[in-house]
Write a structure and sequence with these properties.
Blueprint (H helix, E strand, L loop, with lengths): L12 H4 L21 H6 L2 H5 L3 E8 L2 H15 L7 E9 L2 E10 L2 H13 L5 E4 L1
């Protein structure tokens, strides 16, 4: 048994015409002030993050001194790989505890990935992140 085809309905050109000018409606969402995270702002070296949008994170520690010690250790181990990078720490809160990320800043994604791959060849754990 063959089913009957449904009738085809077409609209005339006049029915499909788009009005020459549609009314323009603009809606604006209220702008809320975002509070400044004072801990993050205080622990981030502005000169190191302002130079680029990418970073290589090599560690995270519960004390800023430990994170800075990791930066110094890796900078010595890596030599030329991190010669143009700036080391810095970024504080963050997890479950009510403050931790410090140890990072090196880079200008580009490619530079960060290249540096991280070179660090991994030296058995230094890392990952590249966009800031």
């Amino acid at each position: 048994m063959i089913a009957a085809a449904a009738p085809v309905v077409t609209a005339s050109a006049a029915e499909m015409a788009i009005p020459a000018q549609l009314p323009v409606v603009q809606a604006y969402a209220p702008v809320e002030e975002t509070p400044i995270d004072r801990l993050m702002t205080a622990s981030t070296n502005a000169s190191s993050t302002a130079s680029g949008n990418w970073a290589v994170q090599i560690a995270s520690a519960p004390r800023e001194a430990d994170a800075k010690a990791q930066l110094d250790k890796v900078a010595k181990q890596a030599g030329r790989v991190l010669a143009k990078a700036s080391g810095y720490t970024v504080a963050f809160d997890k479950d009510g505890t403050t931790y410090y990320r140890a990072r090196f800043g880079f200008e580009t994604k490619e530079a960060a990935w290249k540096a991280c791959n070179a660090l991994k060849r030296k058995s230094i754990s890392c990952f590249a992140v966009q800031q």
